[in-house]
Design brief:
The protein is an all-alpha fold. It contains 16 helices and no strands. Helix content is about 75%, strand content about 0%. The radius of gyration is 21 Å and the shape is globular.
């Protein structure tokens, strides 16, 4: 995934930079006058929705095999467990390549890089549609993961560059709306379509969507220049910028807590006597997530720090509630809704905080966020599995609360850099 208002006083961003790296300075002044935003300028909805569509395709491409395990297993002649590795290898592709690819493309114009990332999905999903070979499909999924790593590192920074500083958080929230839409609507619809018409039809449709998106990006998304060689910062320089590490630590702990619960929600619900209602619980989560991202989009530019604190506290309250509400269906639905509400806008909050902190190095910083996020996803699967194996789902709540407490303490102390108050 990838990378805003200019605070004043102790948390002020650097003065406007010359047109550079990831285009104009990461928070204002594009190098191309025809795209220069002015204060009060309307949001470029067509361009931002194109970015949201890119996020939608990315998430749907990643998650779709999980809903079609039996069908894909039959089509490829392998077990469901091996089909599950199509999701794993996708995540590995993002994890291994997001940072080096983003660093290597700093000097290139932004729109061609964005189009190249989308083209990776066209190729990967086309191969997946036509392949009858499991190893070839694995390669295609790795390519899709590589494309996802690069694309996530671009999206938030791209959205931020298209608008003036006081609208950047809202622009990022719009660009990120494709994520909850894909999880709450896209994956269930894709699963239904795959069962009804065949899984290859689903991936063929994904190819067509990606092709249409390339045309939309070419027509409506502005281009920005890459960074001049003398203005690029190394990974170490970006990582040691004040505020970068606190934001990444909050991402790691918050998303790890989320993925422990989300990955193992089925056994968690089974232990609570709701094993047959997993689909309804996930729908509840998805709808609440949409509400969360809408609320975040409205308030993020003025209240980023309070929103981050509130989301963390709400998630902690939901985790505690879930641990105490075993067998109480209404309480569990309500707790899951609170969890979804808190998680819906989390990606936008973290990406906006990181983009503000990194300024002109936003894309490189966002590639670190992509890597951290994927580590948290992988960690959620590993930690949750160990907990279930050795302590049962009852151990989830205390572990989640410890992780969220660490995130909350970091948020509280990252007042000067990372999550400063808005002005």
């Amino acid at each position: 995934m990838t990378a805003l208002p200019q605070p004043t006083g102790e948390c002020a961003l650097p003065a406007p930079l010359p047109a550079s790296a990831n285009g104009p300075d990461a928070t204002r002044a594009p190098a191309t006058p025809q795209h220069a935003p002015s204060r009060g300028h309307a949001l470029p909805l067509a361009a931002l929705l194109a970015l949201a569509m890119a996020a939608f395709i990315t998430i749907l491409t990643e998650a779709l095999p999980a809903g079609l395990l039996p069908q894909m297993g039959l089509g490829l002649g392998v077990s469901e467990a091996l089909v599950g590795q199509l999701v794993t290898v996708y995540a590995i592709g993002s994890l291994l390549t997001a940072i080096p690819l983003t660093a290597a493309t700093q000097g290139l114009r932004r729109r061609p890089v964005l189009l190249t990332a989308i083209a990776g999905f066209v190729i990967a999903n086309t191969v997946t549609t036509l392949s009858t070979s499991y190893p070839l499909t694995l390669v295609a999924r790795f390519v899709a993961g590589v494309s996802a790593g690069l694309l996530w590192a671009l999206l938030a920074g791209y959205a931020a560059r298209m608008v003036p500083g006081h609208l950047q958080g809202r622009a990022i929230a719009i660009a990120m709306v494709g994520t909850p839409l894909a999880l709450s609507l896209g994956v269930p619809a894709g699963t239904w379509l795959g069962i009804a018409l065949g899984w290859r039809v689903c991936f063929g449709i994904m190819t067509l969507l990606a092709l249409a998106l390339m045309l939309l990006v070419r027509a409506r998304v502005p281009d920005f220049p890459g960074q001049a060689r003398g203005q690029r910062q190394s990974l170490r320089q970006v990582f040691t910028l004040p505020g970068i590490r606190p934001v990444l630590f909050v991402v790691l702990t918050y998303v790890l807590a989320h993925n422990i619960l989300y990955t193992y929600i089925a056994p968690f619900l089974a232990a609570a006597g709701m094993g047959q209602r997993t689909d309804l619980v996930l729908l509840d989560f998805g709808i609440a997530s949409l509400a969360g991202i809408w609320i975040t989009g409205v308030l993020i530019d003025r209240h980023l720090r309070p929103l981050a604190l509130i989301c963390t506290v709400l998630f902690g309250a939901a985790a505690l509630w879930l641990g105490l509400a075993s067998g109480q269906a209404a309480a569990i639905y309500l707790a899951v809704a609170v969890w979804g509400l808190s998680f819906g806008g989390a990606a936008s909050l973290f990406q906006t905080a990181l983009a503000k902190t990194a300024a002109a190095a936003a894309d490189v910083a966002q590639s670190m966020l992509v890597t951290t996020w994927n580590l948290a996803i992988a960690g959620g699967g590993i930690v949750g599995g160990v907990l279930i194996e050795h302590a049962g789902v009852a151990a989830f709540t205390p572990v989640l609360l410890m992780l969220l407490a660490a995130a909350l303490v970091t948020l509280v102390f990252a007042r000067r850099h990372g999550f400063p108050p808005s002005h």
